[in-house]
C-alpha cells in the first residue's frame, strides 16, 4: 500500500503508522527463515471487537456452568445449560455438528483428556475432576475457553494436578509477547509440567480462532523456546495445554471417534485461555 493512504485494516490510521511497520518487520523475520503469519491471520479492529462480543457470551456460559455444576448431575445437563444460555444470547454452540460432533459442549472427566461427549449416563461423582470446554459462534465470530471443575472433595493428587495446570497456562500466557514465538509459550508450559513430574500431550494442541472455529496456527505446547510461528499483533489463538498425570500417550474412543483418554489411566487436566496479541503484550479474551 501507499504509505500515506488509509490502512487496509479499517483503523482509519495511515498505513505508514498502522500496519506498514508491522508488515515490514514480518518481512525481516521471513528473510531470516522464520515462520511468520500470513496477513489474513491478523485480525482487524472491527473483527476484534466482534470476536470480543462472542467471547463475552462464551464467558457467561462458563460462569453459568460454574454456578450449577455439582455431584449427582449428568453431563447431559451441562450440555443443556450450555445450549440454552448460548442460544438465549443469540449465539450458536460452535461444537454442535462440527465435523459431526453431536453435542454443544465437551465434558471430559478424570482420565478423559479432551472431547468428552455429554451423556445422561455420565453422572458426576464426588471426587471427580471435569473439563468443560465451551465454544461460541456469535454472528460468524468465534470464541473458545475451558475450565476445570472439582466435584466436591477431590484427592490431593487431583488438587496438585489442577494447581500445576493453572500455573502452566499462566506461565505460557506470560510468554505471549509481540515479536516472540509460539515456542516461547510451549517451552514455559512444558518446562513447568515436567518439573512437577507431569507430561504434556504432544499431538493435540491449541489453534487460531476468530473468523472460524479452528484457524492457523496449530499451537504446540512441547516446542523449544525461539521456535514455531512469530507472534504478531492481531493474532488470536488458544493456550490450552493438556497436562497428564502419567505419560503423554493417549488413545481415541473407538465407539464415538472423539474422546481422547490417557493410555495409562492417569488423570488429565486442561485449562484454556483465548488470547489476542497486542502491541503491549497479550489480552485474554476468554477464560
Give the averaged pLDDT, no decimals: 97
Rg, rounded, reads 19 Å
* Major sheet: 4 strands, antiparallel
Which strand-content bin applies to the residues?
Answer: 15-25%
- SSE series: HHHEEEEEHHEEEEEEEEEE
The secondary structure category is alpha+beta
Portion in helices: 25-40%
- The geometry reads as globular
Low-confidence stretches are none
Task: Identify the quaternary structure here.
Answer: single chain
- End-to-end separation in angstroms reads 37 Å
The beta-strand count equals: 15
Number of helical regions: 5
Record keyword descriptors for this entry:
287 residues; alpha+beta; 15 strands; globular
Folded structure, characterized:
The protein is α+β, with helices and mostly antiparallel strands. The protein contains five helices and 15 strands. The strands form five sheets. Strands 1, 2, 4 and 5 form a four-stranded antiparallel β-sheet that branches. Helix 2 crosses helix 3 and helix 4 runs antiparallel to helix 5. The model has no long low-confidence stretch (mean pLDDT 97).
What is the topological layout?
Blueprint (H helix, E strand, L loop, with lengths): L18 H13 L13 H24 L6 H14 L3 E2 L12 E4 L2 E3 L14 E10 L2 E10 L5 H19 L7 H14 L3 E2 L5 E3 L6 E5 L16 E4 L2 E3 L5 E3 L7 E3 L5 E3 L2 E5 L4 E5 L1
Antiparallel strand pairs: 1-4, 2-4, 3-12, 4-5, 6-10, 7-8, 9-14, 10-13, 11-12, 14-15
Helix pairs in contact: 2-3, 4-5
Amino acid at each position: 500500500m501507499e504509505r500515506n493512504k488509509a490502512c487496509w485494516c479499517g483503523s482509519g490510521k495511515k498505513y505508514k503508522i498502522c500496519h506498514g511497520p508491522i508488515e515490514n518487520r514480518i518481512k525481516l523475520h521471513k528473510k531470516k527463515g522464520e515462520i511468520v503469519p500470513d496477513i489474513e491471520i491478523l485480525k482487524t479492529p472491527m473483527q476484534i471487537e466482534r470476536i470480543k462480543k462472542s467471547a463475552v457470551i462464551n464467558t457467561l456460559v462458563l460462569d453459568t456452568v460454574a454456578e450449577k455444576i455439582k455431584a449427582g448431575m449428568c453431563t447431559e445437563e451441562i450440555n443443556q445449560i450450555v445450549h440454552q444460555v448460548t442460544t438465549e444470547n443469540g449465539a450458536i454452540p460452535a461444537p454442535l455438528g462440527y465435523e459431526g460432533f453431536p453435542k454443544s459442549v465437551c465434558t471430559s472427566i478424570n482420565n478423559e483428556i479432551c472431547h468428552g461427549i455429554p451423556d445422561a449416563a455420565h453422572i458426576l461423582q464426588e471426587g471427580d475432576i471435569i473439563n468443560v470446554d465451551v465454544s461460541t459462534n456469535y454472528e460468524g465470530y468465534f470464541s473458545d475457553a475451558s475450565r476445570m471443575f472439582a466435584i466436591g472433595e477431590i484427592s490431593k493428587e487431583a488438587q496438585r494436578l489442577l494447581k500445576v495446570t493453572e500455573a502452566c497456562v499462566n506461565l505460557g500466557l506470560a510468554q505471549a509477547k509481540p515479536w516472540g514465538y509460539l515456542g516461547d509459550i510451549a517451552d514455559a508450559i512444558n518446562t513447568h509440567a515436567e518439573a512437577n513430574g507431569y507430561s504434556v500431550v504432544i499431538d493435540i494442541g491449541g489453534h487460531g480462532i476468530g473468523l472460524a472455529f479452528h484457524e492457523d496456527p496449530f499451537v504446540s505446547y512441547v516446542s523449544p523456546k525461539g521456535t514455531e510461528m512469530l507472534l504478531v499483533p492481531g493474532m488470536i489463538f488458544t493456550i490450552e495445554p493438556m497436562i497428564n498425570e502419567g505419560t503423554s500417550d493417549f488413545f481415541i474412543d473407538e465407539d464415538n471417534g472423539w474422546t481422547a483418554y490417557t493410555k495409562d489411566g492417569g488423570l488429565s487436566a486442561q485449562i484454556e485461555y483465548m488470547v489476542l496479541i497486542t502491541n503491549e503484550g497479550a489480552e485474554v479474551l476468554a477464560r
